Amino acid sequence: MKLRTTAARGIEVLATVTPPTSVKVCRVMTRTPRRALPPDGRFLAQLGPTPLVSVRLQQGEPEIWCKLEFLNPSGSTKDRIARYMLEKAWRQGSLGPGATVAEASSGSTSIALALACAQLGLRFIAVMPDGVTEERVLTIRAYGGEVVLTPNAAGVRGAMAYVERLAREQGAFAPRQFENPDNAEAHRVWTGQEILSQIPGGTVDAVVSGVGTGGTIVGLYDAFREAGCPVTAWVARPVIGTGGLSDVECCSFSSRVPGVVEGLSRLFDPAHLPGLVELDIADDRAITTARALIRRGFPVGPSSGLNYAAAVEAASRLGAGAQVVTVFPDRMERYFSTELIRRPATTGDDPSTAPLARR
After folding, report:
1. Is residue 20 part of a domain?
2. What is the CATH number of the domain that holds 250?
3. What is the 3-state secondary structure (H, E, C) of 120-137?
4. pLDDT tens digits for 309-355?
């Protein structure tokens, strides 16, 4: 805009004046602080997929697609949930260097958390029912973890109550594997995606697993269903045959197959798994099948025998061509003091002659 002004000596001058501009108010965006994960020596963040292989123990049996989770660093599929839950808590600021993690588990989760905490520089307290195998206690302590033994009669529920006390009184971070949705989420976004990329045709007809926390079967089912697979979930339940082990993980079916627990999971909801089929597998058959897998070079524990036996039953019912997936959850070293290893396998340990599953 030009204004006419009068300068000295009566000279008329045209001056250019810039009109005032409108004031813009900028909203300042705040960002939630994040905590970067430790960069050094964390090989857990660099691991590739575990193999998915087809297995057939007996001629005439259907082929089963088995995810070899015993090849994870601590020897079980629980490495996935340990890493996923702890890293998420770290990024969110719930964990930091030197913090304390406490979890109730007499099985593979405690070992996996002990390893993961060692990598992250965290203190770990495993709360376990008295009577767990010495291999588990020694492994956790070797990673620098601490072990608190609670009365065996109270089982895992007693250990869970103790963890809640540690969380309240000492500020310990409790992953709460039996109710934490990140447990199942780890398998949905990680294990399930690996399987879909590995299995021929990228489709799954059935997923078979026992239920402990429920995270594996729920997460895998969700991954396959979301990918468009016409999948059904089959739950393997070990039922008492003969023989027995001590109650190493509060197993409500048969204590001979540790890690399969009834009534503790808040993640496993049959209503969320339409078409769910439950299979009762005799514990004799689960143990015998695990031994047969070991003799084929798969160094697995009893739950792998349970899962495989149930998967064979599922595939037989579904018919030729069905792509059935199961998981070999853990490795045999943590069972050296149990009947799986201490009682030598014989040529009579033939899974085809063991008691049949019943619906």
Report:
1. no
2. 3.40.50.1100
3. HCCEEEEEEECCCCHHHH
4. 999 999 999 999 999 999 999 999 989 988 998 875 555 555 444 44
Boundary residue ending a domain (143, 170, 197) = 170
70 closest CA partner among 78, 62, 61: 78
Last residue of a domain, one of 170, 203, 223: 170
Q: Report how far residue 187's alpha carbon sits from residue 220's, in angstroms, rounded to the nearest whole number.
A: 6
Q: Which residue type, as a one-letter code, is found at position 31?
A: R
* Structural domain boundaries enclosing 61: 48-73+184-353
Told to judge if 88 belongs to the known catalytic residues of this protein, a careful annotator would answer no
Q: Based on the fold, state whether residues 64 and 158 are members of the same structural domain.
A: no
Pick the catalytic residue: 24, 67, 78, 88? 78
Between CA 63 and CA 323 the distance in angstroms is 8
**DSSP code of residue 244:** -
Is position 191 within any domain?
Answer: yes
The model's pTM: 0.81
Q: What is the pLDDT of residues 115-147, one digit of tens each?
A: 999 999 999 999 998 988 899 999 999 999 999
